[in-house]
């Protein structure tokens, strides 16, 4: 059994209400936003004046992408790493600049990715790989076993342990989101508050877009026989969200693999109100060919809703 599987088992035990009720008071992880009371309110990327306090609104990464995967296996089923039945999985929460560009790995002091991708930034800077404690341990130190439980159900990696994927997403994206800067947490900042907040925020955005259910309501379900057109996916999702997301396909645009929901946010990424927008990135799915939305490998998924 892997070290991460052992840790997950321990966290499940510790998360039992019978053991923790009345014994643990979870620390707060939210930033200190009192200075934002005097700042104007606006949706990110739509401000007409300079943002004076970047803790109040994400900048320059004000175009926020909530991203999801459709995988059919994990490659780590033997380690009990499964996909959630009847649900897409969480990929991340990304800050894209309002001009279509994006930054990545912006703070090496908060770099927890053991295998950075890319390994070198466009300016030639080599990103130092991380070889320290798992980010799962950081979450557990705040007593957030509920968060770990959800992440192990719905934030699933392919070909490597889940916590490696979580570390990648925080290090590459959250460190480039101004509202997660550790300076926004004030003098009482506790290390890794920002990390816990990022994972909470990514999950909050993910829950707004139940992709599997939204497609299924239009009869679009995974099938190894039936094929669909790009317009069917787009129309189904637009009818539920008001906007056309980015759909990503492999195999020359004929196999559905991912979806990105674009948003502007009023306030912070942690707690603000998201406004869904049409994708600014062209789909990689064919607009003319039939598209396959494959069934999962039966032994690669489980009903996460029935798990504790």
Automatic annotation (TrEMBL):
Annotated Pfam families: Ribonuclease_T2
GO molecular function: ribonuclease T2 activity; RNA binding
UniProt signal peptide: 1-22
Record flagged with keyword Disulfide bond: yes
Keyword vocabulary terms for this entry: Disulfide bond, Signal
Residues the record marks as active site: 91, 169, 173
Family statement: Belongs to the RNase T2 family.
Name the UniProt record assigns to this protein: ribonuclease T2
Species: Phanerochaete carnosa (strain HHB-10118-sp) (White-rot fungus)
């Amino acid at each position: 059994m892997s070290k991460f599987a052992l840790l997950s088992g321990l966290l499940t035990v510790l998360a039992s209400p019978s053991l923790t009720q009345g014994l643990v008071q979870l620390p707060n992880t939210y930033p200190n936003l009192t200075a934002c009371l005097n700042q104007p309110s606006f949706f990110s990327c739509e401000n007409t004046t300079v943002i004076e306090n970047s803790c109040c609104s994400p900048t320059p990464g004000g175009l926020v992408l909530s991203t999801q995967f459709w995988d059919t296996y994990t490659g780590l089923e033997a380690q009990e790493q499964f996909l959630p039945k009847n649900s897409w999985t969480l990929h991340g929460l990304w800050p894209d600049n309002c001009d279509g560009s994006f930054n990545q790995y912006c703070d090496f002091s908060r770099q927890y990715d053991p295998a950075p991708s890319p390994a070198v930034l466009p300016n030639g800077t080599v990103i130092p790989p991380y070889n320290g404690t798992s980010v799962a341990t950081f979450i557990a130190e705040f007593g957030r076993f509920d968060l770990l439980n959800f992440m192990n159900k719905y934030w699933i990696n392919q070909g490597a342990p889940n916590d490696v994927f979580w570390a990648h997403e925080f290090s590459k994206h959250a460190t480039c989101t101004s509202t997660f800067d550790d300076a926004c947490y004030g003098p009482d900042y506790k290390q890794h508050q920002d990390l816990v907040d990022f994972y909470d925020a990514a999950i909050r955005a993910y829950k707004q877009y139940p992709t599997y259910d939204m497609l299924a309501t239009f009869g679009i379900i995974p099938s190894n026989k039936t094929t669909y057109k790009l317009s069917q996916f787009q129309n189904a999702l637009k009818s539920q969200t008001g906007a056309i997301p980015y759909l990503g396909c492999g195999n020359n645009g004929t196999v559905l693999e991912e979806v990105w929901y674009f948003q502007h946010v009023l306030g912070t990424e942690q707690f603000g109100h998201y406004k869904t927008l049409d994708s600014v990135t062209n789909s990689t799915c064919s607009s003319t060919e039939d598209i396959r939305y494959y069934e999962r490998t039966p032994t690669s998924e489980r009903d996460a809703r029935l798990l504790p």
